[in-house]
Amino acid sequence: MKRLILSFLLLLFFSSSYAQQGLCGTVLSASQEAWLKHFVQSEMGKATKSGKSVTRYIPLKAHIIGDDNGNGYYPMSTLLQVICELNAKYVPVNFVFYLYGDVNYINNTAFYVDGSSLAADNAMIQNNIPDVLNVYFVQASPGLCGYYSPGLDCVVIIGGCGQPGNTTIAHELGHFFSLPHTFFGWENNTTPPVNQQERVNGSNCSTTADNFCDTPADYISVRWNCPYMGTKLDANGTPYNPDPTLFMSYSSDACQNRFSLQQIAAMQADATSRNVMINHTPPTNFNAITAAPSNCSPTGFSSTLLPGNATFTWRKPANADLTYLQLRKYGLGSFVADIVTADSFYTFTNLEYQTAYQWKVKCFNAANTCGTATSYSAFNYFITADLPLNITNSAGQLASIELLQNPIPNGNNAMLHFGNTTKDEKYAYDLVQLNGQTLLSQSFEKTADKSNYTLETNSLQPGIYIIKLTCSSTQIVKKIIIN
Fold first, then answer.
1. Do 363 and 472 share a structural domain?
2. Are residues 145 and 32 located together in one domain of the fold?
3. Counting Cβ atoms within 10 Å, is residue 56 exposed (0-12), middle (13-18) or buried (19+)?
4. Are 155 and 13 contained in the same domain?
5. CB neighbours (10 Å) of residue 246?
6. pTM listed for this prediction
7. How far apart are the first and last CA of the chain?
8. Domain end: 227, 243, 278, which one?
9. Which of the 8 DSSP states describes residue 402?
10. How many CB atoms lie within 10 A of CB 121?
11. CATH of residue 462
12. Taking the mean position of all CA atoms in its chain, how far away is CA 106?
């Protein structure tokens, strides 16, 4: 039995990772090819003649892969933007993709670094949700931008290719709904038999290549820029002119913008065969949220939050169901929190003491992830509470260390006051900007008979800074404001 299971997994691996030299690793199954031929020959005429299609609501389950330590996740902001763009691309198809449940985060280094590995297949077997469109976002997969796995019926997208403005996701979902490449048969620079090569004049368009007669002959299985400037000829010696606007071609992303009418008819028919998937109850709110959340709290550097219990609140605009929250250390670029919640609050339990943070929120709906700059609140700022003091005096009492004046007038030095301590100790302090840059490092000797010490802040420009004070006993961090 174990050998049978291993053989099955290896089959899935090779079927999903074939065509490593191309940017798409999809190999349609024999049953998909047979279904498509039957549809084209027996049902295409009726489907395209009616000119009508039903709107299909497609539940998209997003799985985001990080390494074993939870690093490198595909950003939620990118996911929302590319789903917005995906829905715009699929308007002519009458498909609406909506986020199905919570995003599933998976920590798996082997999957993260190679989305077409056996480890990837194992993880997808364990995490696939039945009867929905499962899409996995990973860091890398050698030689690929993405693929659809017929054996597992799910899609893998490499993060660098699944960016706003790219067409990889639209392309791979075309495969999910049984579309072949426009250059079908020529993948990986192979050349099909002459009798299987599509002619430019369309004489064999329904029985060769992708089987669609409204997608011109295409033999190019490497990425190419439009317009086509090559000199290739078909078997009749006729120059051909592949259509760069089709998502299922290998033209550059900037050239692609559509599916053909026959491709659309095939995708609609494929979706109809997925009865359970299209019969999920879709969301009812399809409104785009263009207003920013209001009443965001905490805000302002005067706020001090306990790092173990820092609760943020906001008010969602009308008709908004979900909120996307981003949090980072002030000015340090990468976000340390990337969260979606249906609530109007969120509590952090692992923030750092006496650290400046900035955060913002936007609201959206599961069936409409679009938004503009006006969808986001402004960045809100706060500094978490002081570290607990553990310096004691000779009587065992807790010491206190405070700034005698704060804010400090521009051009003046700060004065540090030591209370309840008679210890002699050597202190070092760093003056640090909120972006993390250290401006000044100094040290001084604290003696038992002296309580006040001057810190050289007279050269600082007006603004907010952090003082990190260190001795053998502890490190204390203070906020200082220069007016």
1. no
2. yes
3. buried
4. yes
5. 27
6. 0.82
7. 75
8. 278
9. E
10. 27
11. 2.60.40.1930
12. 13
Q: Domain boundary residue among 278, 311, 332?
A: 278
Residue 336 Ramachandran class (φ > 0 left, ψ -120 to 50 alpha, else beta): alpha
Co-location of 369 and 428 in the same domain = no
Q: Is residue 184 part of a domain?
A: no
- Name the token pair of 377: 């609140």
In a domain, 133, yes or no: yes
Structural domain range at position 374: 294-384
Residue 80 sits in a domain of what CATH number? Answer: 3.40.390
DSSP-derived secondary structure for 48-83: HHH-----EEEEEEEEEEE-TTS--PPPHHHHHHHH
Q: Which sign does the torsion angle of CA 147, 152, 155, 158 carry?
A: negative
Same domain, 441 and 370: no
Q: Quote the Cα angle for 367-370-373, to 5°.
A: 150
- Looking at the fold, whether 160 and 63 belong to one and the same domain comes out as yes
Which residue has 């049953």 as its token pair? 31
Give the helix/strand (H/E) hosting 122: helix 118-127
CB atoms within 10 A of CB 51: 8
40/163 same-domain check: yes
- Residue 144, domain member (yes or no): yes
Name residue 214's amino acid: D
Paired sense of beta strands 133-138 and 154-158, if any = parallel
CA pair distance 376, 88, nearest whole angstrom: 21
* Widest CA span in the chain: 101
Residue 13 lies in a domain: yes
Residue 389 backbone phi and psi in degrees, to 5: -80, 140
SS3 14: helix
* Nearest-angstrom CA–CA distance, 313 and 332: 23
> Over its length of 483 residues, how does the chain's per-residue pLDDT go in tens digits?
333 333 333 333 333 333 333 489 999 999 999 999 999 988 887 777 666 689 999 999 999 999 999 999 999 999 999 999 999 999 999 999 999 999 999 999 999 999 999 999 999 999 999 999 999 999 998 889 999 999 999 999 999 999 999 999 999 999 999 999 999 999 988 999 999 999 999 999 999 999 999 999 999 999 999 999 988 899 999 998 999 999 999 999 999 999 999 999 999 999 999 999 999 999 999 999 999 999 999 887 766 788 878 899 999 999 999 999 999 988 767 888 899 999 999 999 888 877 888 999 999 999 999 988 889 999 888 888 766 555 444 444 455 777 888 888 998 998 888 776 656 778 888 888 766 678 888 888 888 778 888 888 888 888 888 787 777 656 677 778 888
Q: Smallest Cα–Cα separation from 82: which of 326, 371, 336, 282? A: 371
For the chain, how many structural domains are there in total? 3
> Do 336 and 447 reside in the same domain of the chain?
no
